[in-house]
What does this fold into?
Amino acid sequence: MCGRFTLTLDPGELQETLNLGAITFDYTPRYNIAPTQLVPVVRDAQTRKVELFRWGLVPSWAKDISIGERLINARSETLGEKPSFRSAFAHRRCLILADGFYEWHLRAQNNPKVPYYFKLKSGKPFAFAGLWESWHSPKGDDLRTCTIITCAANALVAEHHERMPVILPLNVQYSWLASQTPAIELASLFASYPPSDMVAYPVSKAVNSPENDTIECIKAILLA
It folds into this structure.
């Protein structure tokens, strides 16, 4: 799964590396992005505009937004089957921008889990494969939400968790968004990212609380 991630790089570097369009909000580095918070999303392959959507998918038919807390991730293997994701997979795919993510490792029974930080060896930003939805509240407000697609973990992540977010290589990111690409042809994009291109290290338990959103969250620590 993916329950926390980061986007800490300079916006100019972010735009240049990922070939992005305009960033529509006041950008600040984020070291501990948590579910239900606003996350940076690209949904249009032409403009490549970066917008903020709420993390946790709320389908258009949902009675209220609480369902989003349970739909922060979507398993790649069942996207075409689950009512919560089927329509978005066919028509509303997005990129969710990041430069790292966290997983928690249980070193021994009865001991607290240790958070680990994962990023690319290059230090470059990347995009998770995502889905988005638009939900209309009873008051008439329009809420846009998203979810991160997950796949089986690669060898590096599997030491800590059986699932990982789908990281899209740069050369296929905008193919993922293209509306004319049939959903059935996109399954090949759900391969786990090469572990040789990633690094991981333990970090402070400060990341356990969403209230902590500082550079201390991504600093490596020594384990006793």
Residues 5-218 form a domain with the hypothetical protein yedk fold fold (CATH 3.90.1680.10). The CA atoms of residues 176 and 186 lie 7 Å apart. The helical segments are 11-18, 86-91, 173-177. The chain has one domain: 5-218.
